[in-house]
Design brief:
Blueprint: H1 8-23, H2 29-35, H3 41-57, H4 59-69, H5 71-94, H6 100-131, H7 143-166, H8 170-191, H9 201-205, H10 209-212, H11 214-231, H12 236-241, H13 247-276, H14 278-302, H15 306-339, H16 345-370, H17 378-399, H18 408-417
Length: about 425
């Protein structure tokens, strides 16, 4: 049951298009919820948290479906669901009275769409990585690092497109996003090769085998610290910048600096990770992010002026971003090794789902601790602790993984024949 090869530029271009369409719409949801529906900050956070969990928390379901029905089918279904989500957002505002329940349904559908197509894309990227010709002893960036770069480029372009359309109203933004994902779906329907038609009993029964692999479950739980840490670029760090006079400008500049760092450093860091090995790359990545929160803790305790606070936050953001650039592509590249002769969809799904659960619970604690006046560094210490644990334990699990087969799907096919 071999996956037909897909051209790498198609896969990387798909990630770019997905992020352009996503970031053209989703960053403006909070504005609409406060301006059009009059929700409080707490209520907005709840709605957006549900959307995030619908995406990250359900990645495991998307991965299982990719294993059961094929990556192409699930990717196309994800595009259709996101189109429905964006159209529902527009419909909620076109109603005679803005319909908040319908708008919430739309936000959940946008998350569910991502939970469907992202695991499928990871499956195809992993297969393309396994098919790459030997580098001849040279270190090179993995396709997952390239996926991060193209995704970040889309995250930069998307908000600019959305902001340009926002003058005509959010309905235009949402409908444009729906039209864009319709076009992406039609393109992928032609560009992606058909899924294999044959499904063996082992394929159907193995869809949930990622949950039976205690070693991989442990690795996924440990690596969740990375997604929780990276998510603080949107929570803990802006809360620290909120203490400064020109918080909005400082926050925008911080996001811009993270994007520049990602575009400039992702590939060199990935090549270095290839030279030193997965265990060292993971340990270094987690340690860098933990150090970032250490800087944030010191800044929260000692900084007295705006310049000191902004400097501490920017250094922290740079370290967290660098840590994520090392740890996350490395973890994704390890998934086929953990899966060995099994389909990889549910394994990618479990890795992301553990991160989504950690973000949902961790953000609640981090947000509460960030406003705890008695210990201003408490949130940073809370976020650094799981990274320290991951830096110690996760590389040990990664080091025990056997060398990857030439193609995880090809090995699975051989295992079924045997």
């Amino acid at each position: 049951m071999r996956i037909p090869p897909t051209r790498t530029p198609v896969l990387l271009g798909t990630q770019l298009l997905f992020n352009v369409g996503f970031y053209a719409v989703v960053p403006f949801l909070a504005l609409v919820l406060t301006r059009d529906f009059g929700l409080t900050a707490l209520a907005v956070g709840l709605v957006l948290g549900i959307r995030t969990f619908a995406q990250q928390g359900l990645f495991l379901v998307g991965g299982v479906l990719a294993d059961r029905f094929g990556a192409r089918r699930v990717i196309l279904l994800g595009c259709a669901v996101r189109v429905a989500g964006f159209a529902t957002l527009a419909a909620a505002l076109l109603a005679p009275t803005p319909a908040l329940p319908l708008f919430v349904v739309g936000t959940v559908l946008t998350g569910l769409g991502g939970a469907l197509f992202s695991p499928g894309l990871n499956v195809l990227i992993a297969d393309a990585e396994a098919r790459r010709p030997d580098a001849g002893g040279r270190s090179r960036a993995s396709l997952f690092a390239w996926l991060s770069v193209t995704g970040e480029l889309g995250a930069v372009i998307g908000p600019l497109v959305g902001a340009a359309l926002l003058g005509a109203g959010f309905v235009v933004v949402a409908l444009s996003g729906a039209a864009f994902f319709t076009a992406i779906g039609l393109f992928l329907r032609v560009a992606l090769p058909p899924d294999p038609g044959r499904r063996t009993a082992r394929t159907r029964g193995g869809a949930w085998w990622s949950l039976r692999d205690r070693r991989f479950v442990g690795f996924s739980v440990l690596h969740a610290a990375d997604l929780l840490a990276y998510n603080q670029l949107y929570l803990a760090l802006p809360l620290h910048l909120a203490r400064t006079t020109d918080a909005a400008a400082a926050t925008a500049l911080m996001f811009a600096s993270v994007s520049v760092l990602t575009l400039a450093l992702q590939l060199p860091l990935s090549r270095w990770a290839g030279r030193v090995g997965a265990a060292v790359a993971l340990r270094t990545g987690y340690a860098l992010s933990a150090t970032g929160f250490g800087v944030l803790a010191v800044g929260a305790t000692a900084a007295t002026g705006d310049a000191a606070v902004v400097s501490a936050v920017f250094v922290s953001a740079g370290l967290i971003a660098a840590g994520h650039m090392l740890a996350n592509p490395t973890a994704l590249a390890l998934v086929p090794r953990f899966a060995a002769a099994l389909p990889t969809g549910s394994f990618f799904g479990l890795l992301a789902t553990c991160g989504g659960v950690a973000v949902l619970g961790g953000n609640l604690v981090s947000g509460a601790l960030s406003t705890w006046p008695a210990v201003p560094a408490a949130a940073a210490a809370f976020l650094a602790l799981p990274l320290v644990v991951a830096a110690v334990a996760a590389p040990r699990l990664a080091a025990r993984v056997a060398s990857p087969p030439r193609s995880a799907q090809a090995s699975f096919e051989g295992a079924v024949r045997d």
